[in-house]
Amino acid sequence: MADPEGKQWWSSAKRTTSWCLFIAASCAFALYLFCVGSPDLFDELWTLYDRSLRGSMFSGFLSVAGFLLALHTFIVVKMKEEVYENDAYIEKLHNEYSKSAAFSRYAPLGNLSGLLFSSILWSVLAALGQLTIGLIESVYPFCALLTTVFTAIFVFIVALYYVRTNIHEWLDLMAENEHILYSKRMRERDNPKRN
Amino acid sequence: MQATMYRINFEKPDGVSLEELFASLCKGPNNLDGAKHLLYMKEETSHYAGLVVQIRDQKAFLTVEGITGADPILTREQLGNKQMLEFNLFVLGKKTWSALYLHYPRSCSWNRFGILCKQRCSAMQKSRQEAATASIPAGLRKKEQEHQLREIRKKFRTPLKWNIQLTEEDFLALVQKATRVHDFAYTSSTEILEKRDYAPASTSVRSRRANVSITFYEGQTLGAQGYIAGVVDALRGKIRRARSRVVLNNEEHIIHLMKNPSSHGRMEFDSIAEEMADLRLSKFHTIGTIGTLIARARQLRILA
Q1: Is A6 part of a structural domain of the chain?
Q2: Which chain A residue is nearest to residue B285, measuring alpha carbons?
Q3: CB–CB of B120/B24 below 8 Å?
Q4: Which terminus in chain A has less CB density within 10 A, N or C?
Q5: B145-152: which pairs have CB atoms within 8 A and are 24 or more residues apart?
Q6: Which DSSP string do the residues of B114-166 spell out, in sequence order?
Q7: Mutate to test the interface with A, among B198, B266, B290, B303 (most CBs of A within 10 A)
Q8: ipTM of the complex in this document
Q9: Domain spans of chain B?
Q10: What's the gap in Å between the CA of A123 and the closest CA on chain B?
């Protein structure tokens, strides 16, 4: 799915994911600096992670990945049917963009799909990380693991926010259509002769 | 012929809340200025729907009202095809206190609608002010009484005000009629259908102030017109909207000058006229045109 403006549909998702990765890496780096400053801190964190968090994080991120996989299909299909193929929405887009730059109707949907896919991927990576680099008791692998965990969490939050925005738009459009239908029914009831 | 949608923003007057004012207008009575204009309003959950009727032939209207009683049905047969009534529909958002007013050429203008609301508001302010004045204890000293009177007058000083958005041409025509123009300031706010990366395109307003403030009073209006025309020309292409305060017929208006007023929408006159042919006034809020206005108001974020 290519955007007429020249962007590929995944470029927005890549950009958002890169930002999340950058912030996550910064958090992990800050933790690394703390650990270098006080070696006891790493030992305490490792003990906590090893005893209580590894198993929960593994199952937690796998569940999130499964949930997102289901949500991905549902939200993309429903948004396409209910919003992007809605006549009122198409008319609104044509009115605004017919004369100016071309605008792909499905580009935002492609971007959202890319973001959800990215979130799934990072959740799986974070889950797998618990059973691979998460077993190595050293600062560097631990910080790398934390980077994947933070990235998965941030991308998940961003994806949820955009899912909420999409659902909000969908409900707005439904309310508009509902009122137009209601008015039409009332008009038909009041003036049966004309119909 | 096309009817144009105008956006009017109401500003809260002193001493009366906008909720109270419009609730009072919903209750009636509807003839606010000696039966020349009628205002019907219906309250809904998120908005008010309304109808301003301008009566051209008062005698004929009274005859019709006499036939059908309190719930007049205005049919073409009853009117004998006389063009004695003109209708202007509007919806008003409860959260934004903005109205989308559907105006037909040469009929009751947005300004008249504002004036009708203001008449009721002024009456409410006056009655409340009188009640507050009457509640001043009689035993007070003269100075204290005067002080309290001044305080009461302050509480009810600001009348109902309303703002409007116009095209450059309409705006300049209005300035020529104005007796005073002041605080002419451009606000480059753009009402656009915003493309978004992850969600469907949505209507939104982006604002950035770029003020060119001047003050002109009566006697200087020619200069003001020239200056404003010059500023409009100079900034043409760079702005979507400008803001100015204009005094017209002793009413001060805040005018929003829009480059793309068509984004508020237009409707074909014929389709509305057909709906209005046999209109039961108590059920005006169910007609399709109101539905269309509500849908448009939602797009413009006038309604939540």
Answers
A1: no
A2: A183
A3: yes
A4: C
A5: none
A6: HHHHHHHHHHHHHHHHHHHHHTS-TTS-HHHHHHHHHHHHHHT-S--EEEEEE
A7: B198
A8: 0.72
A9: 1-162+264-304, 168-258
A10: 20
- The separation between CA B131 and the C-alpha centre of its own chain, rounded to angstroms, equals 29
Check if B278 contacts A (Cβ < 8 Å). yes
Q: How far is Cα B263 from Cα A151, in angstroms, rounded to an integer?
A: 41
Whether the CB-CB separation of B86 and B113 falls below 8 Å is answered with no
Q: A178 to each of A183, B12, B225, how far by Cα in Å? A: 9, 32, 47
CA B78 → CA A190, B58, B67, B75, B172, distances in Å? Answer: 18, 14, 9, 5, 42
CA B42/CA A145 separation, integer angstroms: 61
CB–CB of B299 and A176 under 8 A?
yes
- Give the tokens for residue B59: 């005698």
Task: Please tell me which residue of chain B has the smallest CA distance to A164.
Answer: B199
How far apart are alpha carbons A71 and A103 in whole angstroms? 26
Cβ–Cβ under 8 Å, residues B88 and B69: no
* A5, part of any domain: no
Structure tokens at B134: 């009457």
- Which distant-in-sequence residues (6+ apart) come within 8 Å of B18 by Cβ? B10, B12, B97
Choose the mutation target among A3, A170, A183 for the interface with B, i.e. most B CBs under 10 Å.
A183
Cross-strand partners of B252: B247
- Asked whether residue A1 is domain-assigned, the answer is no
* Interchain contact B299–A (C-beta under 8 A): yes
Q: Which residues in chain A land under pLDDT 50?
A: 1-6, 99-100, 195
The total of structural domains in chain A comes to 1
A21-37 confidence digits (pLDDT tens): 999 999 999 988 888 88
Domain span including residue A123: 11-194
Q: What is the pLDDT of residues B239-275, one digit of tens each?
A: 555 566 666 656 666 666 655 554 577 777 777 767 7
List the 4-43 stretch of B: residues with Cβ below 8 A of A: none
Pick from A179, A188, A194 the residue to mutate for testing the B interface (most B CBs within 10 Å). A179
Residue A2 within a domain: no
Residue with tokens 């030992």: A43
